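A reminder before we start the practical. When you read a complex entry, don't treat the lines as separate problems. The point of joint prediction is that each chain is placed relative to the others, so the output describes one connected object in space. Small molecules and nucleic acid strands, if listed, are placed in the same frame. In the example below there are two entries. Take a minute to note the order of the lines before looking further.
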Amino acid sequence: MSEAAQYFQFVLAPQMLIGLVLGVAVILVALGLTIIFGLLDVINMSHGEFYALGAFVALALSTIGLPFWLLLLLVPLIMLPVGYIVERGLIQRVFHSGDRHVRTLLLTFGLGLVMEDAFRLVFGPNPHRPETPIAGGVEALGIFLPSYRLFLIIVGTAIIAAVAFVVYRTRLGAMVRAAAFDRDMAASLGVPVQHVYAGAFAFGVALAGLAGVLLAPIYSVFPTMGRDFILMAFTVVIVGGMGSITGVVVAGLLLTQIQAIVSLYISPVWSDPIVFGIMVVMLMVRPQGLFGRLGHG
Amino acid sequence: MTTTRTTLLAALLSATAMTSAAYAADPIKIGVVTPLSGTYAGIGQQVKWGLELATKEVNAKGGIMGRPIELIYEDEEANPAVAVQKAEKLFEVSKVDFLTGTVNSGSTLAVGQVAERAKKLIATTVSFADSITGDKCSPNVFRVNAKAGQQSTALAAWLAKEKPKAKVFFLGPDYLMGRSTVAAFKEAAEKVGSVSLGEVFAPLGSKDYSQYFGQIRAAQPQVLYTSVAGNDTVRLFAQMEEFGLLKNLTLLGASGTVTSQNIGAIGKAANGFTTGVGYSTEINNPANKAFVAAFKAATKADPDLYGTDSYGLIYAYKAAVEKAKSTDTDKVRDAFRGLTWSTPQGDKTIRAGDHQAMQTMYVVQVTDGNFKITSSVSGPDAIGPDTCTRF
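Here is the predicted structure of the whole assembly.
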């Protein structure tokens, strides 16, 4: 075998595969963020804490003996009403003011801080970790991948496809896109805009919670875990085009692959600055991102 | 009215008691500049508990040469600038004979300079930095706890015995402490015949260590040394287990890598993790058992490394003053040099050349979620060469 092929098989390919797992994880977190931004025009600074909330709810429920597979269904269902109440009870109160961006940003930022401290009070400052639900690994062509990470790629892809299907191919999705494009026109055509808003927020929050459950066995659970993915998720949303689902998927895969490959050649400390550098350049030359906003063809 | 009178009477009585005590024997004053608030307050608490327990025991048996010990505390907030002010105050205003308590290595070095100007002696019971008794040594500074180098030497000696010529890979967090701990252990391990295969430094707080696993797998190490800490350890060990990297691999690390705070979350992946430390409550000798029992009775907490080393210091100072028959700085310094005294960790000896205490170092291993002592390395083997050139 040639040296280049060997290099690809033993160095580059495993690295890209690991980058793919991280990419799916980032997309799962960013998906909810982009839906909330695209539809409500709200920058949800507490999104990371909802990701953490999902993980902590799963942690609490697993102590009473519920199996992981049930939690995977149960936690998003618990997160839905939580998100709905937060939207109706908190965000709607400042949503209609003139400086909506600043107020909702501050509100969700504050909410995130409160939630982070609440986690610390309830669960203590020390990390927790659920056992990996699928042990062992798969080896193909000399590349080793733990079974749970393979599961994560498959399930993550399915979730992303399902979300895209709902948003682009169903009547519900059409209402969401209509409300995002022109709120008043949608309302006058009989779309229950209030409920669509709260529902979309709840949906985004539930996705974050689901990501929390899925990623906990790999990344562990602790009060400040919400900060882990949030910067990367925001970068993905900005580069992909705020509100665009396709954009999140493309940018998520692109940026994590860049990180994975770059860290082979230069100190891994630089992988974050490079990604944020790309974001800054993107904001300068193409502020709308790679793809357009939700509902804006 | 009655209360006022009682208080007055009590005050008068206690004042008389104090004067009479002073007539009987002037107390020996020991200043304690230690963090009583802030991030390091937990360490300061252990220092205080250790010093107080030993002081109580010594005073109950007649003090030092008939004179009781008096501890005077100042909060240094783990800030060298504050520590300097507080140390000056203790030397100039309170006229303390001796000073201890500094935690932060920077505080110890700074207070050492104050001591040189005041012509007094200090000792640290906590600071790890090798330089305190190395290239930045001072004739007025002693260290009774083990330095970082002693920890890595002990671990390297254990490694040489268990796995001669081991092939070692190093993974550290990418900042000063992380890089210096890796460098120290690498040097110690290579000296005893280990082969270094490679090293990688991951950003502090990394999410995913799996991107380095290809490199580790390709190097085929028998041993991995790491100095990550806190939640980074949880992720590293869990992800290594996930990728099947823990099979046939010995995990070694810094003393702060696996602690009571994160051992629960690491779970069975922590099994077999080995590190070198200067103290463990499990040390099996009568002196330690009695000490642990007395410490628990007084504080309702287990003693840790810092509490134990602070406890031992009072006995070191007592031995030195009794040998010198004086609290005079020059005489006590001479008495300290080469002094051997007993502590819960066994006998310790102050090396005359650099003022570093020699002590038995312990290698502890995680077994089913608990730290067990697997072996020990004698003081002379662990201390390393004397690099102090100032005296």
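Discuss with your neighbour: The longest helix of chain B spans residues 2-24. What might explain this?
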